[in-house]
Amino acid sequence: MNGIPPDDGLAANRALWDARAKAHGTTPDDVFYDVDAFLAGRQTLHGIERELAGDVAGRDVLHLQCHFGMDTLSWARLGARVTGVDFSPAAIARARELAGRAALAAEFVEADTQDLPSGLAGRFDLVIATYGVLCWIGDLDAWMRGAATALRPGGRLVLVDLHPAFQTLASYEPLVADWPYGGGEPQRETVTGTYADPDLPMAAREVVQYPHSVGEIVTAAAGAGLVVDRLTEHTEAAFDARRILPQGPDGSYRFPFGDTHLPVLYSLRAVSPPDRRPAAR
């Protein structure tokens, strides 16, 4: 396998997500992407993002890193006018197909979320990104600037993601941490399989991910001209895509630490000020 150029993991990461976009939702043991259930009306969104977004009926929503569109189209089912963006052409092709099968109106755009097309600027009431998002972003400032630029004055960014403290873990039992907490330095690894169906055979691929601390994320949002009005660290989650946490009797996953729990998710809401000028690009 050829090594990734030291300054760019974008092509390698796109190849991974192209492969995942073609595979996800195609096997009976896929625990994240049940396409048949979605087409039958199942809602794929979680309570955290729905509460932060509020009533989206009649709103223009931009969904960043939308994969093949199940969550994007779930926002459409709630009455939003939706646009999904992903850098994977395979994901965008499947998203458009899924929209047609579900008879839902949606626009899907193939683009790097660190360099959004200028045609998206100032069009949206909400920009939403959820679960497994910023670890794939090398230029956090550019990502936040793009989100801010896409918002209308008074619009909101809703971001829900894995907590950086949780992402440092390689395993819970035994407790092993092998990933930096923040700093943004590229972390190269070889990925096999997929979180959606661990038994699905997939080619090993070298990828690059980037650790960002909570402080770095909030600072990037502020630097893009957004005003953070809510930041929550969540100690339980409805799922564990990394498959390392114990599941409680209530079905939720938690990260035990002594007599308490450490956060596994965080959620951030930030507002574009009514008098904000577009962020510099």
Structure commentary:
Mean pLDDT is 93; it is low at 1-6. The protein contains eight helices and 13 strands. With 281 residues, it is an alpha/beta fold. Helices cover 26% and strands 25% of the residues. Helix 1 runs parallel beside helix 5 and helix 6 (140-150) crosses helix 8.
Strands of the widest sheet, in order across it, are: 3-2-1-4-5-13-10
Question: Helical region count?
Answer: 8
Structural class by SSE content: alpha/beta
Nearest-integer average pLDDT: 93
What fraction, in percent, of the residue positions are helical?
A: 25-40%
Annotation, overall tally of beta strands: 13
**How big a fraction of the residues is strand?**
15-25%
Order of helices and strands: HHHEHEHEEHEHEEEEHEEEE
- Distance from N terminus to C terminus (CA atoms, Å) equals 35 Å
What overall form do the CA principal axes indicate?
globular
